[in-house]
Each structure stands twice: as structure tokens, then as C-alpha cells.
Amino acid sequence: MLNRRKFLHLSALAAPLLAAKRSFANGLAETTKPIVISTWDSGMAVNAEAWKVLSANGKALDAVEAGARQIEDTINCCVGLGGYPDRDGIVTLDSCIMDEHANCGAVAGLERIKHPVSVARRVMEKTPHVILVGAGAQQFALENGFSLETGALSEDAKKAYAEWLKKTEYKPVINIETRKTNGPFAPKFFDDGSPNHDTMGLLAMDNANNLSGAVTTSGMAFKLHGRVGDSPIIGAGLFVDNEVGAATSSGVGEEVIRICGTHLVVEFMRQGLSPEQACQKAVERIIKRDREKAKTMQVGFLAMNKNGEYGAYAIQRGFVYSVKSDKENQIHNSKYIFAIN
Ligand code: ASP
């Protein structure tokens, strides 16, 4: 006869099996891991770098840092020191990182330092603070072994800035689709033909089922000096909750900050929405505030839950994202509300 202790022991062993059976009966997918997802088609190269870490059984935190460093090393309109400057001709970088324990670190308005994501990680790991800005962030970076770069604009940035100076209009027409004229997944362009958008946000889940995320950007091109967008703000440009999922964003940062965008997406997932549904609800929240204004701008959210399911939603057509797992390595089109262009 089964005694009570033995019965409890057997029930405990059976519980996970029953739960698994139940979840399949409910149509829930098996967990996909490891996996990394990132904003835009530039995310393909970023994912490849993150995948080196994940496929070697590494941590999601190390993976997202490695991925972000990849794009910080390239000449890109909107990330790293090769990015477009602010209206005073200075490149200022924003970045943040967050791990499975809700540890997080960020830098904003950082000048002449090549890898803001690694400085953000250092802020997270070596200080009691979350965000360092401007000269203080740079001082911290230098004290922690990062080198001071020249501050010279990349050739691309120089050209775009010279062009912008002709009109000096701040006009972030972000990511309105230009696919017809510029080929598939072409970056989006200002009226003068220069791309103004490619902020990198990436989310990863490792083999241990832990989530982390990172964001890195030079922010909106030709912004006011000192302007900080959503990208380095935890809960706006990035949020990770290891019980539920993670989210990141790209687009007009002010609109994302107003609704605490990525925190909102994660909370919607906590309520049971899929990543895509959660992103859609956050986009709708922005549109509800000012529908006409929303028609003139882009914001895209990208999210992943603890099953490794992912999804995105954007205000406008044209937001794309990249996914890498054992099952796939490709770019997806995000769903959207307006197809104005
Ligand atoms: N979200 C970024 C910012 O507002 C811009 C972007 O996504 O390109 O700075």
C-alpha cells in the first residue's frame, strides 16, 4: 500500500508531466530555446554574433552584449560612433542592458566611447546605479578601461549632416516604407535620402531559460544636444521580466516613453496575451492618444515570451525584425496599423 510520503513523492514526479500534457492539450507550443530576436534587418548580423554565445550554451546576457557590440562596430546611420550626429554635429550614444534578475544598467548621451552597451553593463555590475549620463558616463567609461575615440564623424554621417544643415529641419519621418524604390528591407529615409533609423534592440533566451535584452543607438538623427530617447530607459526601450517575457522598441522614443512602452508590453503578456497581441495593444495605446499625430510617425515593438514565442507590431508598415534559433534564421515583417506610404 502507498504510504502518504510515497504518494506525495510520486505525485510530485508526475506533476511536471501532467502540466506538459495539459499545455500541449491547450495548444501551447513547446519552448524554443535558445533564441535571439532583434529589430530591423541589421539584426541578422547581430543575431549571428549573439548566436555564437547561445549555441555554446552561454548566457543570454553575454549573447545580447555580444550582439549589440557587433552593430556598434559597424558604420550604421543610427548606432555607434559611425551614427548620425545631433544638431550640433556631435554623436551621442544611448544604450541599456537588463538581465533575468532585473539587474539593469544604462548610459545616455555618451560621447566618443565605442561600445556603450558594455559601459551600460559595467554600470549594472559595478555601481549601485542604473543610468549614467553625459560627461559622467564618459568619465566612468574611461575609469573602467574604455578608450576615448576621436569624435570625428563617419563619412556617411558627415554627408548626411552637411545635407541636413541646408534646411536644419528636425523631421523624423521614421521608417515609412520605401521598399518599392529601395529594395526589400531597405532602411528608411529622410526626404533628403538619408536613412534616419536603425536602433538595435535585441532579446535572447538561453538554454537555462533565462531572458536578457540590450538596446544600443545614436538616437534620432539631428536631435537637440542632450535629448535622450526611449532606448536607454528601462521600461521604455527595453524591459525584461524573467517570469513572463521581454520587449524592446524602435521608433519615436518620446512616444514610447509616454506609455512606458516595453513595460506595458510585458504586462500585457503577463495577462495572457501573445507577444504579437501585447505589442499591438501598446501600439494602439500610442495611437489612441493622438491618432493624427500617430499617422506621421513610426513606433515598433518586438517581444518574446518564456516559451520562446515572439511577435511584433508597429504603427506603420515597414518595421522588420530578425530571428535566430535552431528552427530559423530570417527576417520577418511586423504587422502594422497604418499603411500610409
Ligand atoms: N528610439 C530611438 C530614439 O528615439 C530612435 C530609433 O529607434 O531609431 O532615440
Written overview of the protein:
α2 packs antiparallel against α3 and α9 (261-270) packs across α10. With 341 residues, the protein is of the alpha+beta class. The protein has helices spanning 4-25, 43-55, 60-72, 116-126, 134-143, 155-167, 179-182, 253-258, 261-270, 275-289, 291-294, and strands at 35-39, 93-98, 104-110, 131-133, 200-205, 211-217, 238-241, 245-251, 299-305, 310-316, 320-325, 329-333, 335-338. The model is unreliable at 1-27 and 176-195 (pLDDT under 50). It contains 11 helices and 13 strands. The chain has an 8-stranded mixed beta sheet with strand order 4-3-2-6-5-1-11-12. A 5-stranded mixed beta sheet has the order 7-8-9-10-13. The termini are far apart. The chain has a single domain (30-148, 172-338), classed as Glutamine Phosphoribosylpyrophosphate, subunit 1, domain 1. The structure holds aspartic acid (ASP).
Please report which band the strand proportion falls in: under 5%, 5-15%, 15-25%, 25-35%, 35-45% or over 45%.
15-25%
Low-confidence stretches: 1-27, 176-195
Small molecules (ligands, ions, cofactors) in the structure: aspartic acid
Spell out the helices and strands N to C. HEHHEEHEHHHEEEEHHHHEEEEE
Rg over CA atoms, rounded to whole Å, is: 21 Å
Q: Would you tell me the overall average pLDDT?
A: 87
This entry's quaternary arrangement is: single chain
Q: Strand tally, please?
A: 13
CATH topology label: Glutamine Phosphoribosylpyrophosphate, subunit 1, domain 1
Domain count: the total is 1
Strand order of the largest sheet: 4-3-2-6-5-1-11-12
How helical, in percent, are the residues?
25-40%
What is the assigned CATH homologous superfamily? (Glycosyl)asparaginase
Shape estimate: globular
Number of helices: 11
- Helix/strand class: alpha+beta
Main sheet, how many strands, which sense, barrel? 8 strands, mixed
Question: Mind telling me which CATH architecture this is?
Answer: 4-Layer Sandwich
The CATH class designation is Alpha Beta
